[in-house]
Structure prediction request, 292 residues.
Amino acid sequence: MDVSAPFIANYWQYILTVCIGIIIVQFIQSFYKNSSSTNRSSVDDNRKIFVDNDDDEGCVDDNGNQSVPTDDDCEHIPYGMVRYPNDEMLTRSRHFYEEMNKRRSVRFFSDEPVALNVIENVLLTAGTAPSGAHTEPWFFAVVSNPEVKSSIREIVEEEERINYAKRMGQKWLDDLEVIKTTWRKPYIETAPYVIVVFKQVYGLKKDGTRIVHYYNEMSSSICVGFLLAALQNAGLATVTSTPMNSGPRLRQLLGRPVNEKAILLLPVGFPSSDATVPNFHRKPLEELMVTI
Prediction:
């Protein structure tokens, strides 16, 4: 005999209330669990922005530990900076601007050799750039070997051919039309040097412990700015070429470790006698500065 039917008929409203209560409790618990997970994810995202690791491996070991660069023996010393008279400051700043305003992105190079010690001084200058927590997350591979330069060109052009055919939208291609650039990069082989700029997404101690490299992308970009200025000051030309999708193969070709990521490729040398550049004009002061 089934006695459940009369029971449900008599007490259905109470049973329904209990069921609704259970559902509400489960919903609230699920909501707070997801909210907590989202908050933790937000904190992790903020840390990733701060550390600037992109999509590479993070700066933590298998136990979740990370090492911050420290130097207990680093004393602070007095700093004296040369102060120039106002007239001299104005003259020096104007002369430096005029020199830098001559800089252009050059894609046509002479194969005339350049002394290696000039390149070394240029890179020493680049290395004076500031960096997050003084981690100096940059490295430069200076390539002059013709066979290696040929391999670099092959890797880059293989990817660039795909970029121009499939990955880059029509708007991008239209914007590049004025520069008249294509997937072909003959300057990689012609220029006496190719400097491949790597950012170190994290450092490594001798025991293998990873060191956090704060703002490695931003720090490396500032370093490249110093590098471009130093090249111009030395009378050398270059063009900033981004090795899109070529980075991993370039890293392997040049024997660099997994904590380094190729971010720029710079052919360096003298412009060819028939070199041309687009007749671009730069923003006037009123379009790039405001005084408050």
